[in-house]
Amino acid sequence: MLRIHFTGNDLAGVRMAAQPDVLWETILSFHRLRDRRGSVVYGEWRSEARIRLGGETRLLAALVPSRGYFPDFLTPPQGILGLDEGLDAVRATPPGRLRTELALIGAARSGRPVVPSALRALAEGGAGMLGRLLTALRGYHRAAVEPYWSHIQARVEADRARRGRALLDGGADELLASLPPMLRWRSPVLEADYPVDRDVHLAGRGLLLQPSYFCRGTPVVLRDPELPPVLVYPITHCEAPTVRAPGLPSLAKLVGHTRSAVLNAIGDGGTTSELARRAGVSLASASQHAGVLREAGLVATLRHGNAVLHTLTPLGAALLGGNGAQGPVQAPAYERAAYARNGPVTS
Q: What is the pLDDT of residues 286-343, one digit of tens each?
């Protein structure tokens, strides 16, 4: 049983992760790769990922056991920012922490805090061995996670929208009560089924809730109580992950090529002029399409100084993320030609 103890300050500090964490998804997917359960959701993904990997997982297998403890340094908070930032944080792990956490793998296996022989070179701090680890993580992510990232993002965003509604309706109490069934909110304690008996005292630090596509069955917390508290929990699955071709064919059929290009151009936010430049359309066209998207509930628009700032709503992000867009999307040629004739738009 896992028990997470909250104070009033902790409830005020509960927050949702803004997006899936690339390193949590990478490490947890490696668990799913070796797990025969969940074949409906993960079966086809396992087959496809294994073909891409070609069996090159020995270092990761030594570092991430099929069950139980794996080192906290593999999932630094920077993983929420992207793979490069996350791997940079792994590279910066202090040598003392590296040795301590690798020894915990041995303790979990044999009861003795001894670094397993396959990981001794890594524990000794060799730059070459750490480089091998980073290469292995990047290669595994490219084969097993990256092709499905749009689907993962869409599913996590849908879960965030559900939790966000609970938070708006009833505050942190309602948010914690809305979590999946293996998590039970009995104020002031959040309980969960867990492989071991564990109590986590937040002590006023709050809690980051991180929904995860590849988390299964039970939530996951960091072992080190001094690290910022995070609870990784499984989202509800309704379909298997799929690899989609680049571009926006499905979205374009729904809202039109130009409007889908404008929606994609919003990204993390942008003014009307920025949307016009990114999508390759005129300022008037970008403004008109942004207005239609706003009326449909896909875009939120706020005035920012002398400019108008557009951002995606959860519905817009889920629609765009679930469509499998990869890279910038442009409007049809006739729109781009008109933009070219009018010249760049500035404001």
A: 888 888 888 888 888 766 556 777 888 777 877 776 544 433 333 334 333 433 444 4
Q: Are strands 14-16 and 207-212 parallel, antiparallel or unpaired?
A: parallel
123 SS3 class:
helix
β-pairing, 189-192 vs 183-186, is: antiparallel
Largest CA distance in the chain: 72
Q: Rounded distance, CA 124 to CA 135, Å?
A: 18
Pairing of strands 14-16, 183-186: unpaired
CA angle 304, 310, 311 (to 5 degrees): 115
CA 116, 117, 118, 122 dihedral sign is: positive
How far is it, in rounded angstroms, from Cα 61 to Cα 40? Answer: 24
The tokens of 235 are what?
């989202």
pTM surpassing 0.85?
no
CA–CA dist 254, 18 (Å, integer): 26
By CB neighbour count within 10 A (0-12 exposed, 13-18 middle, 19+ buried), where does 81 fall? middle
Q: Give bridge partners of residue 199 from the DSSP assignment.
A: 3
Radius of gyration of the chain (CA): 22
Beta bridge partners of 185: 190
Residue count of the chain: 347
Whether residue 188 has a cis bond before it, omega within 30° of 0: yes
* Alpha carbon of residue 147 to chain centroid: 14
Number of other CB atoms surrounding residue 226 within 10 Å: 6
Inter-axis angle of helices 39-53 and 22-33, to 10 degrees? 100
DSSP code of 226? T
Contact 70, 95 (CB under 8 A): no
